[in-house]
Structures are given as structure tokens and as C-alpha cells.
Amino acid sequence: MDDIIIYPKHYCGIMFVPVFSVTKLNSMKTMSIKKSSLWIIGLSTLLITSCDPKTKTPITVVSDTTKEQNVIISEDETEPAEPEITDVNEEPVIEEFIVEEIEAPEPIALEFEVLEDQMVAETVPGFISETGGESYKEVIENDFKRVSLAPLSTFSIDVDKASYSNIRRMLNNGQRVPENAVKLEEMINYFKYDYKEPLDQHPFAIHTESGSNPWNNETQLVKIGLKGKEIPAESFPASNLVFLIDVSGSMNDINKLPLLKKAFKLLVAQLREKDKISIVVYAGAAGVVLKPTKGKNEHKIIQALESLKSGGSTAGGEGIKLAYKIAEENFIKHGNNRVILATDGDFNVGVSSDKGMKKLIEEKRESGVFLTCLGFGMGNYKDSKLEVLADTGNGNHAYIDSMQEAQRVLGTEFGGTLYTIAKDVKIQVEFNPAKVQAYRLIGYENRLLQDEDFIDDTKDAGELGSGHTVTALYEVIPTGVQSEYLKEISDLKYVQKKVKEAYGDELLTVKFRYKKPKENRSIEMTHVFKTDNDRETSTDFKFAASVAWFGMKLKNSKYLQNHNIQDIVALAKNNKGQDEEGYRAEFVRLMNSYEVIE
Fold first, then answer.
1. Which of 104, 178, 192, 311 to pair with 19, CA 20 to 30 A apart?
2. Torsion angles phi and psi, residue 336, rounded to 5
3. For position 87, what pLDDT does the model report?
4. Is the pTM of this model over 0.70?
5. Are 385 and 135 in contact (CB under 8 A)?
6. pLDDT-based confidence at residue 103 (cuts at 50, 70, 90)
7. In angstroms, rounded to a whole number, what is the distance separating the alpha carbons of residues 65 and 95?
8. Do residues 261 and 281 lie in contact, with contact meaning Cβ atoms separated by under 8 Å?
9. 424 with 459: CB under 8 angstroms?
């Protein structure tokens, strides 16, 4: 048979003429798909790297007029040069440096049929799903667990609210919401609840409540709430803040860098004389735009923000290293030391994988510097990366889709966003088998802990900010109720199922462990919840249930018995409470929009 010829292509003035004979194609049949794919990727990489057309995009940085300062980190593994910090009141001089951006041609795609080899694909737990260029970590919904076999439920708190504002953005744009973008705990915790503040020495108060389940008449709901102590803004310790801002080419959209600049001005307006601000940017490289500057010098800080322009690739790992370096050099003992990362999460140069980023932040958090991650934009938003960074960096994660959300995160809730009152907060619930046959934690799938992690002070957990509320819901199957979600199991030979009768009026016992922000030894609290069937459930209980219900509908949950959107809307609408800022009313409007999209 004649040779099969693939016609030549021109790339960068070089003509490639790949020729494959039938003999070689036949030999490829015995090659595994994995090896064949690697061979094709290798050829594509060779073609891409042989080309180097460059564009030049200016990014502004501050240059010291009296001393030469090396603030550029190259894309190799060398450590950044240490910037020299001079008088913080010195007016900046803006100059431009060039970040080179490489545009590669489309790689050649070669297709051939593999007849004799077969590939079996396995689903790896926790994989990252891509939806229209955006990435979300897989969320596998929690199942029911029998109390007789697993009496303890252990998880880390989560005060992140990014999922709700991201879902709101999608619904407002008429988009369908990817199931993995829905994190039930973040939806529930987006809203404020009327929990009383702590009255004792602990930084938070505990609230419990139970009642009927609106989506399944055979199960009950249990609500566990935490309320962090409100710290007056004037009592906040001095802050050492490093703004770490992504100025790569992907940040050029109106809802990214332009919105980011306006959002950060809200934060700058609240700074005090004793606060310090630095600004680090990263694109193809990382650099210092503003050296540590006192908070009262608002004009200088805003001038530096306004000078930012987007362009280049995204060396996020190098930016994080430099930001932590600046934060550590200006560390305030007993102060609030924090890096505030603002990005769409699209890291593509240097350390960029979720695993690599997690390892980097694990190393950096030992310095005592906290991390806040603010997500911006759409189309290539990388939620999975920002979630990993915030969770690992003893911080929080918010998604800013509008100036309204910026005002909430960096204005109204400034203290909760930036000032931590308790860290490594863990919850462990023990259910009484005399009352509860099985339970299911709603949400928190990415925050589950092993039972033994509860008393292990080396295990990282969530942080609680000033005035923050945290709410967790359990769906429980009462003892004696038949349920399709529970299958028959064999009797155990070596373990007796004997329930202690001394605690007949108790539904559950919940324990909490937390550390003070500057300490490494945890403190434990215990709260016993007794059954009270005569008490009417609160407005907050019903509204939280409506949010969970809608989130489960978005996820197409297998545990929903009632899918009627109008029932969900009615429950939320009738339990908006005072709703001074209108967020609950907005939630009702969003659900009505969803009905049209669906």
C-alpha cells in the first residue's frame, strides 16, 4: 500500500513535513492510548516552543528614585531579590517595564484509529471539572450514615460565601449552573442569621434547633449555628496588608481588573494611621508596585492602584512568594498580618497546579500570615484553585461579581473578612441512637474530617472572623422510621447494639474545638441539644432550609422528594424576616429567574 502523506505546514518560517507509512501506523496499533497521546502532545509542544512571536504589554511599577531596586522575579526557581524599603511617605514615581507575552500557534492535531488497544477510564475522587473554561472541584453529595455504625460526624467550619455570589452571577446572566459550582454550605452561610453573641470568655456562641423537613416528610432537620463576637473596628489591631493583584492578560475584562480597582478603594477608605499597605502584582513576572505605606496616605495607595494595567501570562506562584516575603518583612507582632489575593485564579506559569499551590501555602502559613482570596470575572474563573488557597492559608474566599458584593465583602463585613477571632474551628456531633437512626450533613463535602482529627491540633480547619455566623444543617431519620435511603444490614457478631437509657431526652451532643489566632493549642466547648417537639421553629431555620432546598435542586440531589420550585419560593418569601439589606428578597427573585431558565 502507498505511504499516507500529511501535507506540510509552515510554522515560524520552518516547513514541517510529517510522513507516516502504513507500516508505522500498524505498529502504532499496539501502542497504548496513553503513550500515543504523549507522543502527539510532545510533537505539538515541539512545534509551539519552536516559535516565539512576542508582544509587549506595559505594566506599571514603582521605582525608587534614589536607590535601584530589583523587584522582578524570573520564571525559574530562584528566590526573588529582596526589595529595599525606604521611607513610607515618599511619593511614588511611576515607570513602565515590559512583560513579554508569548502567543503560540494552534498545535497540529493528528488523528488515527487504534484498533487493538482499549482504555478504561476511572473517575478519580476530587477531580476538577471544566465548564466553559471555568473549573470546579467535584462535589460528591454526603450520604446518610447509620448512627449505630458511625455515631460521630466531624467537619471543619466554612465561612466562605463565594459559591452563592457565583451562582447569582450565572442566574443573572441566564446561564445554567454547573452542579459542582453549587456548595450548599456556602449558599446557606451567605445570609446573616439572628444568633445571639457570646456572653462568656469564648469567641463565639452556639445555637441549636430542630424541626420538620420541607422536602421530605419522613425526615427531620437539625440546625447548628455559631455566632462570632463582634469586635468594634476601632479595637482592631494594626494591620499589615499586602494586596496581591493579578494583572495578567486574562484580567482585562471590565468585571475583573477595573472592578477590582474600585473594590479595593472601599477597603483603602477604612484604613487607619497604624495600618500598612503594600501592593504586589504578577503577570509573566512578579513585582512590587507599592512599598509599605501608612494607611492614612490614601492618595498614594489609590494612585498605585490606578496605575495598574493588564497583560502577559500568569505567574501566580511567584506572586504569592513575593507577597508573603513582603508581609513577613513587615510583620506586626499581635497585629493582623494578611495577604489579600485578587484574581480569576487562572495561574499558568511556574507553580500552578492545585497540589503545588496547596504545598506552597502550607509552607507560608507557618509565618503567621493569613490569606484572603477574592475571585473576579467569568469565562475562565478557577474556583477550585482559590478554594484550595483560602482553605490552606487560614483565610476565606469570596467571589465579587459587582460593586454591591464588593461593598458587602470589603465594606459592611470588613471586620469579618479581615480580622480572625478563632482559627482551626472544628465541629464534632454525636447523635443519640435512641432518637436518631441515621443522619446526613448537608454540604461541607470538602470540609469533612476524620473523627480522630478533632483532637489533633496539627490538623488545619476553618477560621471565624469578627461577627461571622456559621450554620450547618443535618437531615436526620428518626429512630423507628422506615426509609428508602437505608438498606438492611447484617447483625454484628462482636459488637452489641445497646443504647444507654440515661440520655433519653437528648438528641445530640456537639463539641467544638478552636484556637486563639496566635496560639497552637486548641480549646474545647460542649453543647447538649435536648428534644423540644413543642417549640415552633424560627424564621431563620425555615429560611436556611429554603436555601438548602434550592441548592439541592440546582445539584439535582437524589434526596429531594419535592422538586416544586414554587414551594421553595413560598418558604423563602414567607421567612425573609427583617431583611434590612434586601439579600433574602434578592434570593427570592433569583429563584423566580431560575424557573424561566429551567
1. 104
2. -100, 100
3. 40
4. yes
5. yes
6. very low
7. 10
8. no
9. yes
